[in-house]
Amino acid sequence: MLHPDHQRCRELARPDVFNFSVSVFIVLGILVSYMPQHYKIISRRSSRGLSPLFVLLGTVSGTASIANILTLPESTRDMACCKEIGKFPCAAALLGIAQIGVQWTCFFFIMLLFLIFFPRSSQPVAEEEQDTNMPTWKEAVLVLALSLAFFIVAFIGSIVFVYALPSHVRGWANFLGLLATALAAVQYIPQIVMTWRLQETGSLSIPMMCIQTPGSFVFAASLAARLGPGGWSAWGLFIFTGCLQGCLLAMSLWFLWRDGQAQKSADRNTVNGHGTARENEQTPLLRGDS
Prior knowledge:
Shape: elongated
Region (Disordered): 266-290
InterPro entries: LAAT-1, PQ-loop_rpt
Radius of gyration: 25 Å
Distance between the termini: 97 Å
Number of helices: 11
Number of domains: 1
Order of helices and strands: HHHHHHHHHHH
Membrane topology: Multi-pass membrane protein
Pfam family, one: PQ-loop
Structural class: mainly alpha
Subcellular location: Membrane
């Protein structure tokens, strides 16, 4: 069903080494940027601080994004060219898909870690003592169920449009892109609200956001150069997420600085009021009296 554009295939057969290197760097950068978040949840053995809506919307948005780029006519045209060009040019041509695929995989793993390390009390807590800011176990399970349900819908729908309704595939791809963009735009709002209510970052990784916030704009520029204006529904997503993630990062850095200042102030009060410095001044006198 996929018919290669021979002129486009000839262009892809001569990949630019610089663009290839940049694309590979972005793929590795995406993978590395998510590692601090994976590590923080695993090391803390808790996903406290992550909003269920943030995880759900991020997972569904990522699924819609990968389905979008896989069904875009520009992407299917490039994939069809792999039959005519060598392995290296084919790999270079599909790096844009690989970038989004790696990002989706990494966020899907966050969703699994969120469920595995979801904080649950071993003893029943009285209703009035429960923290209303914290999500429940049922909400965490619902995140998994809805994420898997949307994955199935997007997978089946993409197959139907690509192979059975090819004349409407761009409309389906643009719908997925718009959905991914809309969910990504809303995704960080519940996380910003939860972080503000908790007044701490919890298991949310600041190093991850430090890497991803500027990386989102680099990623968007890379996809725009590869797909052109016709792929706006793919690269526009990352401009939205970069701006919103920057707001969350600024809030998290403020809490980190505030807590650091509070800790320094507490340490000074301890030393001056009841701590080591006062004891060092009095110790010789006490020894002399004895």
